[in-house]
Amino acid sequence: MIYLRQISTPVKKPRMRRFGIGTGTKIQQANLRKLANKMADNPKMLIPKCQSECAKCAFDKTLVKLQKVHSMRNNPNALKKLAASGKQLERGYAAMLILAAETTPIMFANARLPSGDVSYTMRGKMKKETLIGMQHFDDPILRLLAYSEIALKKDIHLYSSNDGISCSGRKPKYPPGLLSEILRASGYSLRKSQGAYQCEHMSEHEGQSLNIEIISMSQSIQLCKVCTSRKANLYTELTGRVLAKNIGADFDISLEHDLKCISGDGCTVSNAGFNTSDLMSQYQLGAISDRELLDKYSQLARESLADLGKPIFVLGNTCYEDDTQAFIKALNPSEIEEIALKRVLKAAPEPIVLDTATPNAVLSLFWDKIGASAINAVIDDKELAKKIYQETRDSGKTPAQILRDAKIQAKSKNVLNALPTLKGLGKMGKHVDEVARTFKAMGKEETIRLIDKTGKETKIKSTNCGFLKALGAIKGKEWQFTKEELDYGEYLSEFTKALLNSEPEDYKDAVQNLLTASGSGETVS
């Protein structure tokens, strides 16, 4: 598994734009008044719960200053001064006490955050973030904005849950309750097993997966690709409730791509160490989802192969390293395709990465450069191979067709040259002649492949059935024919067998006999 150390993510101020000012709804005003009165009654609610036994609490002095502000709650002029000077949290608290004492309608402005638009009202002189954090203190994400100054200055870690805010001091200590809260809201169905929260497939999973470890908890969240969301970003959900100078230091992300290597742990792809910094930055910033991260990572793994400077073969999700034979076997080629593939892949200068492929598709990759050499590997006749290659360059034929035709041409020098040239053949006659010549030149396997690719009309299908019966290859293919075609094919098998086994001097008559028996009405001349 490729392991990636999490890139540090410094706290950034959200970009905000103020627009539109007006009185909010009655409910909006009432909620803000209620929150302001709640704070006016209890300044301690702004002090985070302590998660660690720190030698000195970072909020001791802050509490004293907040209580001083609280003591002035009935002095409007003093509150205005306090809301315009001092630390941000103290200013914010003074602004809330001003709101608690007011009775006039509240005028709201709007700010645009990455998470959406948010309303706030101006009081005192302070950063908008502080105002928003204080006035939306019931929101576990927005409330953290009020603590930016103190968290960054004192280098402490704050965590915000539905139950309130907590502090672990200078060392991260992710709260278990917060993790449970986020996972419940994430939409992921997870179960805890051996120090990790896993999706239902991870216990026996191999392939693409995302693992996010919270170091301070020694806990991981593990998701296979099937379970990852196309919309959710689990990392930003976990870090969105944390405020610290270096949030990412408490998180490690590890990924697995979908390539399975026949070399096991010695896989070149897994040990390549390709650059993922741009991809991880996108994920950390929330620009891509969990599913997109895995998809892009697997794509990056494939693209990185081009930089390795040696041939590596990948088909689908399997990496065959430089094992040409294993790669060819996976393509399931015919005998002549296998010979040609061995030749072209021997000269492969760079990795070949294919999602799906046929032997013909692989041959096409190299055909323009070494097509003649591939033909020669099949027919062992350099001059004829060169001639065929030149003649077929603009023919529109596929490499597989050219190789089959080349094999027939090569054998025609002895076997096929002895057969008579037939004239007057119609559609059925041409088909029968091609099947017979293919058998005599290339044998049973290629003949079956040809038969499987041709014939949709009943008469041709019945004839094909007869050929398959004559070749002893009908088993497993019966479903391709109707009962009528099977019965007729049984009758024709006697004639197809005679044609396949005919000597050159009997070939013409054997073709005519089969055509007559098939009812084609064609006459060979």
General description of the model:
- Helices cover 45% and strands 13% of the residues.
- The radius of gyration is 38 Å and the shape is elongated.
- It has a six-stranded mixed sheet, with helices on one face. A four-stranded mixed sheet has the order 3-7-6-12. Strands 14-16-15-17 form a four-stranded mixed sheet, covered by helices on one side.
- It is an alpha+beta fold.
- The two termini are 69 Å apart.
Low-confidence stretches: 1-14
Query: Largest beta sheet, briefly?
Result: 6 strands, mixed
- The total of beta strands comes to 17
Sheet with most strands: strand arrangement: 1-13-10-11-9-8
Taken as a percent bin, the fraction of beta residues is 5-15%
- First-residue to last-residue Cα separation: 69 Å
Q: Helicity range of the residues?
A: 40-55%
Oligomeric status of the shown chains?
Answer: single chain
**Overall shape:** elongated
Overall SS class: alpha+beta
Average pLDDT number: 88
Total helices: the number is 20
Radius of gyration of CA atoms, rounded to a whole number: 38 Å
What is the fold's blueprint, element by element?
Layout: E1 2-4, E2 18-23, H1 26-41, E3 49-50, H2 60-71, H3 76-82, H4 88-101, E4 107-113, E5 116-120, H5 128-135, H6 148-154, E6 158-161, E7 164-167, H7 176-186, E8 191-193, E9 196-198, E10 209-214, E11 219-224, H8 234-239, E12 242-243, E13 251-256, E14 260-261, H9 277-284, H10 290-303, E15 313-315, E16 318-319, H11 324-331, H12 335-346, E17 352-354, H13 359-379, H14 382-391, H15 399-412, H16 427-442, H17 444-453, H18 458-471, H19 483-500, H20 507-518
Parallel strand pairs: 3-7, 9-11, 14-16, 15-17
Antiparallel strand pairs: 1-13, 2-4, 4-5, 6-7, 6-12, 8-9, 10-11, 10-13, 15-16
